[in-house]
Amino acid sequence: MASWIGVAAANHVARGRAEGFMQVNHGKAAPLRRIRPGDVVAYYSPVEVYGTRSPLQAFTAMGRVRLGEPYIGVMAGDFTPYRRDVVWFDAHPAPIAPLLDRLEFTAGRANWGYAFRFGLVAIADADMAVIAQAMGCAAELAALAG
């Protein structure tokens, strides 16, 4: 099991949670091919609504990637994003600011958000456990480990 952070506006994450999928990098397939069934993904949302500057800077979802490969989703118009199915945990949003010194990939880094520009970031399992604790879903994450 690997741990990942996807980056998307909270309103896009909410749609994925409601419909049981994830997508990253504006629907590109290549990043989703790095993820395997059973991996855990948390979403970091820099903003509330895509295309605005309404800051959020919080983790907004966490779940386990289901069996299957990336597939093309159905959207209005000619947009055909690639997606993966996810079983979302019962988690609540958690601001990143109180976690910055506790996460390996952000601790001591003034430009901690730089890694998020790629849209999908591999992180240490220990970092995922810290995020899960903050989101109130540590028990669901621990159950995956056995």
Q: What would you note in describing this structure?
A:
The chain has 146 residues and is of the alpha+beta class. The chain has one domain: ph1033 like domains (ph1033 like fold, Roll), CATH 3.10.590. Helices cover 23% and strands 28% of the residues. It has 4 helices and 8 strands; from the N terminus they run βαβαββββββαα. Strands 1, 2, 3, 4, 5, 6, 7 and 8 form an 8-stranded mixed sheet that branches. Strand 3 and strand 4 form a beta hairpin. Helix 3 runs antiparallel to helix 4. The longest helix is centred in the last third of the chain and has 11 residues. The chain is globular, with a radius of gyration of 14 Å. The mean pLDDT is 93.
Write the layout of secondary structure elements.
Blueprint lengths: L2 E5 L2 H10 L1 E2 L6 H5 L6 E8 L7 E11 L5 E2 L9 E7 L5 E2 L24 E4 L1 H11 L2 H8 L1
Parallel strand pairs: 1-3
Antiparallel strand pairs: 1-8, 2-6, 3-4, 4-6, 4-7, 5-6
Jot down its keywords.
ph1033 like fold, 4 helices, globular, 146 residues, alpha+beta, single chain
